[in-house]
């Protein structure tokens, strides 16, 4: 979807431009850490991140609670959730599709006609319109068939049938239901109703961070404090490092899981960090049968351009044979599976990327390296872009 708005005219173009300008203002910062520099140079934010000693960084110091059962970190305060979402699109609302919008949806539902719709409301509206289009088209086809049979029986020419298409069909405005007229109320009762105020809504939604997102905020940006779910005390960096790896060990504390470089958290974080370091906004891609989706700026501005499938590769095949983890895509996959995933993402205008994460051999790297995040330097990431070959379109 283009954001230039050059082909839009009139009030529609003005509204589109105002919405684009508002999004640029709200989501102006790509990371939670902001560099408030008085310099007007376009490279001032980059210089602040490369040379933090020469500038003052605005660190929001957000807090989240580690939840081992869901393998995520919950950001409970609305202030922290807003900062992490608007500055880098980290996490998702547990009651929403992506952006935490449960409270906005409830407030819109209280109004007779909301001025703005959330992404969930837009999605439901489109689904209802598609469902109504299919019903109208089926009814038109049935009427055309009945007219053709009647014309054939009467020996006359059938009237031209009008079958709605997706390009010409428009949803009809729903009719207003007839309601019984209520008896007139006394003036005193109407005054009492006007004085009544609706009870304020409590925002019960929280922002849910994946372990990869939480570790990126903790280790790289130092803007997130992870709290212990039992004591509500801040967890140390070493304890977070061990806890995030331990959630994939079931049952935990078994010697077979100790000192393993093929822990699922380590493999997926290597891919997550690789694309985040390149400037991409990385979000989960389970909806499209992939591990990650890559956005150029974020879900608010564009659809995801790339879909990433993480493929672990063992440097030493013996490590795979002795591994207690059943890593997805570690074994050779079939062409049927690959073609299916590629076709699904091609239909939604996404390019499939196979990301190979090489797991270091235990015979080469000491197990003591796993005690710190420095072990991530031993992982290597290679990506291969995969596209469908369409002979009719790719002859040139």
List the helices and strands and how they pair.
Layout: H1 10-26, H2 44-50, E1 62-67, E2 72-75, H3 78-86, E3 92-93, H4 102-110, H5 119-154, H6 187-195, E4 207-210, H7 211-221, E5 224-227, H8 237-246, H9 264-277, E6 281-284, E7 292-295, E8 306-314, H10 317-321, H11 335-347, E9 351-359, E10 380-386
User: What strand order characterises the main sheet?
Assistant: 3-4-2-1-5
The sequence of SSEs as H and E is: HHEEHEHHHEHEHHEEEHHEE
What are the segments in which pLDDT stays under 50 over at least 5 consecutive residues? 1-7, 175-185
Q: Outline the biggest β-sheet.
A: 5 strands, mixed
- What is the beta-strand fraction? 5-15%
Give an account of the 3D structure.
This protein is of the alpha+beta class. The protein is 35% helix and 13% strand. It is built from 11 helices and 10 strands. The strands form 2 sheets. Strands 3-4-2-1-5 form a 5-stranded mixed beta sheet, covered by helices on one side. A hairpin with a 4-residue loop joins strand 1 and strand 2 (72-75). Helix 7 (211-221) packs antiparallel against helix 8 (237-246) and helix 7 packs across helix 9. The relative contact order is 0.10.
Features:
alpha+beta, 5-stranded mixed beta sheet, 396 residues, 10 strands, 11 helices
């Amino acid at each position: 979807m283009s954001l230039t708005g050059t082909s839009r005219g009139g009030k529609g173009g003005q509204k589109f431009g105002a919405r684009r300008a508002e999004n640029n203002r709200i989501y102006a910062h790509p990371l939670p850490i902001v560099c408030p520099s008085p310099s007007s140079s376009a490279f001032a934010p980059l210089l602040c991140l490369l040379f933090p000693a020469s500038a003052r960084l605005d660190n929001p110091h957000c807090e989240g609670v580690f939840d081992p059962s869901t393998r995520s970190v919950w950001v409970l305060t609305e202030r922290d959730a807003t900062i992490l979402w608007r500055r880098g699109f980290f996490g998702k609302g547990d009651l929403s599709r992506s952006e935490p919008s449960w409270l906005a949806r409830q407030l819109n539902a209280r109004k007779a006609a909301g001025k703005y719709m959330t992404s969930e409301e837009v999605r439901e509206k489109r689904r209802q319109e598609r469902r109504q289009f299919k019903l109208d088209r089926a009814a038109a086809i049935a009427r055309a068939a009945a007219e053709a049979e009647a014309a054939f029986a009467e020996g006359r020419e059938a009237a031209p049938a009008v079958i709605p298409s997706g390009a010409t069909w428009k949803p009809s405005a729903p009719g207003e239901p007839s309601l019984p007229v209520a008896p007139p109320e006394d003036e005193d009762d109407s005054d009492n109703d006007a004085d009544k105020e609706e009870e304020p809504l409590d925002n019960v939604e929280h922002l849910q961070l994946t372990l990869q997102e939480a570790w990126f905020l903790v280790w790289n940006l130092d803007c997130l404090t992870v709290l212990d779910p039992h004591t509500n005390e801040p967890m140390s960096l070493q304890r977070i490092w061990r806890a995030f790896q331990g959630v994939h060990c079931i049952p935990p504390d078994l010697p077979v899981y100790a000192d393993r470089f093929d822990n699922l958290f380590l493999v997926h974080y290597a891919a997550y960090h690789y694309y985040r370091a390149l400037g991409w906004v990385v979000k989960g891609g389970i909806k499209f049968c992939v591990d990650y989706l890559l956005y150029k700026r974020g879900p608010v501005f564009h659809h995801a351009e790339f879909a990433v499938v993480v493929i672990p590769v063992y440097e030493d095949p013996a490590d795979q044979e002795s591994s207690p983890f059943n890593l997805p895509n570690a074994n050779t996959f079939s062409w049927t599976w690959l073609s299916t995933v590629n076709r699904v993402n091609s239909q939604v205008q996404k390019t499939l990327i196979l990301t190979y994460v090489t797991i270091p051999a235990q015979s080469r790297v000491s197990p003591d390296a796993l005690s710190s995040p420095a072990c991530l330097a031993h992982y290597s990431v290679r990506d291969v872009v995969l596209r469908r070959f369409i002979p009719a379109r790719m002859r040139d």
